[in-house]
Design a protein that fits this description.
heterodimer; A: mainly alpha; Fumarate Reductase Iron-sulfur Protein, Chain B, domain 2; 61% helix; globular; B: Rossmann fold; FAD/NAD(P)-binding domain; 19% strand
């Protein structure tokens, strides 16, 4: 069971900030953000974001839930951790963005679910969770075909020369996907984690 | 009176002997003043001091010392009750001018001439100590500040009369819930222990408290104020501590922030009372408050309301938000601020509030609707954000000082005193700036405090305590906090500047120490700040007085009243001994035992003026003892050099300089005169408030006179000096010397 963040329909939702403080990974530290902007200034791809982290955090306080959860900021973060290292208030900025991305997906924000990064992340996670390893062919395949059969085929063919080159230089293998030693144990670990997450968020809700 | 017997002592130590010929200085004393001087290589050493003491035992009753600056070695060269006069041969002569140069030698010789001339014109002051003196301290106001002041005064052994306008002691703290943090780690609201404070005051036998009592009239002076009370009694007290506190800004003027539109828009003071009562609920329907927005700077830092920051509203709102969250952890508390101002350790409370989940929004509130929707122009997002669905809006209103009694009508006289002492519309530059001042801010308007006077002073200059900007009663909150412009009356707490409980308690100690000093000095006839311990006081020869009233009007402290025949009467313990009256008097009939127009003029005239063929100008600097002289001393200590053609005469305040001194200087052949003193004006640094402003005003009228004498008006100027100007002043002096040299010599030279 997952607690939903409050009233998704309102543009300004007064209780959103407190919900984020209480429910999002690192949200308790977010309460200490003093809007200095060191995170946005340190971000190597700030220009590729709808809003820098500083502004996004202020939008959370203003209760602009929809604008926050549809923002590409959540997906474009490259996890360089400059912001986390430099934040004078020890706000784990990247963690918060990642967890907000999870919230966005969970709550069904279409833009979030359909963004490039979300599709790739999903494909990546599928492989990692299933095999304990990421398999280049399966991850890219899963990612490409998430756009549909025709689009997947087109993208795959466009990258065929690269794939062949990689096989030739033994950067990519043919055959069964690699897997970690005991995938059964891995699946148990992940199931337990999911159970804990559901329980904790359930308690908050 | 015993015959004056002056001893002159020269010191050749600290480089003086290597730089000037001390034997020639001895010659000046011998030839021109018929005095045998004694020289010592280390006059301040035991041997030198013993030499002077031996002479005093042998009959010397006035000591003139030509050595270091008068500001140093005062303990070594203090021979009470023998009068000691000092001439500076060190800082302002040998350390700041070329050694073994004829101009430096001339400078040193003139220093000896000036001090020996001065010696002939002064006597040791006899203090005014007649009559009975009271050591009782009147504390006005029974709030935190007043209670603390009463306790502190009693602890110092003084009887205290504690007046409280209402019928209970405790003041505004009685209606407050918790108090702001005041002890480490300064992170949590603290218990409000006002009842304990009131009990401690009640248990103190030296304090007699009168409830429901105000002052109807105050006359007299420090040491013997006669205070008429509203209960009909008349009490004599030695000093007065005004701790009348504050009142919240009138929220009914804040319609633009929704006050009055909904009962759920309340002020911080109203919420505080609800917290104190233990029940916070919506006034409209009694429902609990789940979601609340605090609007900071409600009517503060707003030119249409209070132009200033009250400094405690931010912390108060933080505290209230924390109290609400503590009572109900799910409470959604928004604080809408322009700048969060949590001075000092109050930052810790801010952090606590952040950690507790209080939500902060930076921006101006544009509107507050009747449905409690607060629209914020959010500066950090860059758009208008509506906060809808709130249960309560709290306006953090500012503090208005009780410099007047708002319950009483304004008296017929004195309103102009509140409005006129500081021009409310005067542009004011950035305060506390040394050197070239940055451009002034735009003019701002300021309301005159409304209501009756607190003390109803029976002073020539009106019933009110003069106020500074924004209606706070003080005289200079950086340099002389607690002092009002009425000697012996001190302000403490929020009537002086906005502050919280802990600061007010500290403020009370400061004001009490001042009041105790006032009481003790009054009975000894000694002056208070800044001429602490000065026993002289102005004496007026009424036979020559023309009743022009300039002294009674210009005294910065209202020390001089008028009798039935409009002759001036000096209230000696109200006087701070600046001599502004002396400088004002057109017939020069005001003087001190040790300071007079005659003394200054004689010192000025004692200098040897070289003739025009020498090519050496002579320039007079009348320098204020408070800032200009110490700055020049420091310039000497830093070995900064300046022209040897100037002669510096220290004065108590530029306000004490009579225009006669200037005309005397020009008539004996000085080529230029510079008045060097503190910054006048609204952000004055004058230690006597208005002295340098008075000097500037008088000087503005000198130009015409100079023209009629066929002299260039540029020969006389006023220069601003601050204590930090050690590097700047030598340049100012040299530039003036250059300017005067360019104008040419004074045509009166040699006549």
């Amino acid at each position: 069971m997952t607690a939903l963040s409050p009233t998704p329909s309102k543009k300004y939702d007064l209780s959103f900030a407190r919900w984020v403080y209480d429910n999002v990974d690192g949200g308790d530290r977010l309460a200490l953000c003093m809007q200095c902007g060191t995170c946005s200034g340190s971000c190597p791809i700030g220009t590729q974001m709808d809003h820098g982290p500083r502004k996004l955090f202020m939008m959370i306080r203003a209760g602009m839930k929809e604008a926050v959860l549809t923002s590409n900021t959540l997906w474009n973060c490259v996890s360089c951790y400059n912001c986390v290292v430099r934040c004078p208030r020890k706000v784990p900025v990247a963690y918060i963005l990642h967890d907000l991305a999870t919230v966005a997906v969970r709550e069904g924000y279409a833009e979030a679910r359909n963004s490039d990064n979300a599709r790739f992340a999903k494909a990546f996670w599928w492989s990692a969770a299933k095999y304990g390893r990421t398999d280049e062919r399966l991850v890219t395949g899963k990612y490409y075909f998430s756009f549909g059969m025709a689009e997947g085929y087109k993208r795959g063919m466009a990258n065929l020369p690269i794939a062949l080159g990689m096989i030739k230089t033994k950067r990519m293998h043919l055959g069964m996907p690699h897997a970690c030693k005991n995938t059964g144990e891995l699946h148990k670990v992940l199931a337990k984690a999911a159970e804990i997450e559901a329980r904790d968020h359930g308690k908050q809700g | 009176m015993t015959e004056r017997k002056t001893g002159i002592y020269l010191c050749s130590g600290c480089g003086i002997g290597e730089s000037v010929d001390v034997a020639l200085l001895e010659g000046v004393a011998k030839k021109e003043f018929k005095l045998d001087s004694r020289t010592h290589a280390c006059l301040c050493g035991d041997e030198g001091v013993a030499m002077i003491r031996a002479d005093i035992e042998a009959g010397v009753n006035q000591v003139a010392i030509a050595a270091c600056s008068a500001r140093v070695m005062t303990d070594r060269f203090g021979f009470e009750p023998i009068q000691v006069l000092r001439a500076d041969l060190r800082e302002k002569v040998t350390w700041s001018h070329a050694p073994n140069h004829e101009d430096t030698q001339a400078l040193a010789e003139d220093a000896v001439r000036m001090v020996l001339t001065q010696a002939g014109k002064v006597k040791a002051p006899e203090p005014y100590v007649e009559g009975e003196w009271s050591s009782r301290i009147l504390v006005m106001g029974g709030g935190v500040t007043g209670l603390e002041a009463a306790l502190q005064s009693a602890a110092l052994g003084h009887e205290v009369l504690l007046l409280e306008k209402s019928d209970r002691l405790g003041g505004r703290a009685l209606d407050a819930s918790k108090r702001l943090p005041y002890r480490p780690p300064y992170a949590q609201p603290e218990v409000n222990d006002i009842a304990g404070l009131v009990a401690r005051v009640g248990a103190e036998s030296k304090i007699s408290a009168r409830l429901g009592c105000t002052v109807t009239q105050t006359s007299g002076m420090p040491g013997r104020f006669m205070v008429n009370l509203s209960d009909g009694s008349v009490e004599t007290v030695g000093a007065i501590v005004v701790a009348t506190g504050w009142r919240p800004y009138d929220a009914s003027k804040l319609g633009h922030l929704g006050y009055g539109a909904s009962p759920d828009v309340v002020t911080g003071v109203e919420l505080e009372a609800m917290l104190k009562a233990g029940k916070v609920a919506r006034k409209s329907n009694g429902a609990p408050v789940k979601s609340v927005a605090f609007v900071q700077c409600a009517g503060s830092r707003d030119p249409d309301h209070l132009p200033y920051c009250s400094s405690v509203c931010c912390a108060s709102s933080l505290k209230q938000a924390l109290e609400l969250i503590e009572a109900e952890p799910d409470t959604n508390a928004y604080v809408v601020y322009q700048e969060m101002r949590t001075p000092g350790v109050m930052e810790e409370l801010y952090r606590t509030a952040q950690s507790a989940g209080v939500i902060f929004m930076k921006g101006k509130v544009k509107t507050v609707g009747a449905d409690l929707t607060v629209t914020v122009a959010d500066e950090l997002i860059g758009e208008d954000v509506p906060l809808a669905g709130l249960d309560m809006v709290v306006l953090a209103t500012g503090m208005v000082p009780n410099s007047t009694n708002p319950d009483q009508p304004a008296p017929e006289t004195g309103a102009e005193q509140l409005a006129g002492d500081v021009d409310p519309e005067a542009p004011f530059p950035v305060a506390g700036y040394c050197g070239d001042a940055p451009p002034a801010h735009a003019k701002r308007e300021q309301a005159v405090p409304e209501g009756g006077s607190l003390l109803n002073l029976q002073y020539r200059q009106g019933p009110h305590l003069p106020v500074l900007h924004d209606g706070f009663a003080d005289s200079h909150y950086i340099c002389f906090p607690y002092e009002t412009r009425r000697t012996g009356i001190y302000t403490a707490g929020p009537v002086r500047r906005p502050m919280d409980w802990a600061e007010a308690a500290e403020d009370a100690s400061g004001a009490v120490l001042k009041a105790v000093q006032a009481v003790r000095s009054a009975s000894a006839g000694a002056a208070l700040h800044p001429r602490v311990g000065d026993l002289s006081y102005p004496k007026i020869n009424l036979n020559q007085c023309t009743k022009c009233k300039r002294c009674t009007v210009e005294c910065p402290f209202g020390a001089i009243d008028e009798d039935e025949q409009t002759y001036p009467i000096v209230n000696s313990t109200r006087c701070r001994r600046c001599g502004t009256c002396m400088g004002a008097c057109p017939v020069r009939t005001i003087s001190f035992d040790n300071y007079s127009v005659d003394m200054l003029s004689s010192m000025i005239k004692s200098v040897k003026i070289p003739d025009e063929f020498s090519g050496k100008p002579r320039i007079l600097i009348m320098a204020c003892e408070n800032d200009a002289i110490p700055a020049l001393d420091m310039a000497g200590i830093k070995r900064n050099q300046w022209s040897a053609h100037v002669r510096v005469v220290p004065v108590r305040c530029l306000g004490s300089v009579s225009l006669l001194c200037i005309s005397d200087a020009l008539s004996v052949g000085y080529d230029g005169v510079m008045m060097m003193g503190c910054k006048p004006g609204d952000d004055y640094q004058c230690h006597f408030v208005k002295g340098s402003a008075m000097a500037a005003e008088r000087l503005s009228k000198v130009g015409e006179t100079l023209k009629s004498m066929m002299l260039e008006p540029e020969r006389v100027t006023q220069a601003e000096a601050s204590i930090a100007d050690a590097d700047r002043l030598p340049k100012v002096i040299d530039a003036f010397v250059e300017q005067i040299t360019a104008i040419g010599f004074n045509p009166f030279k040699g006549f």
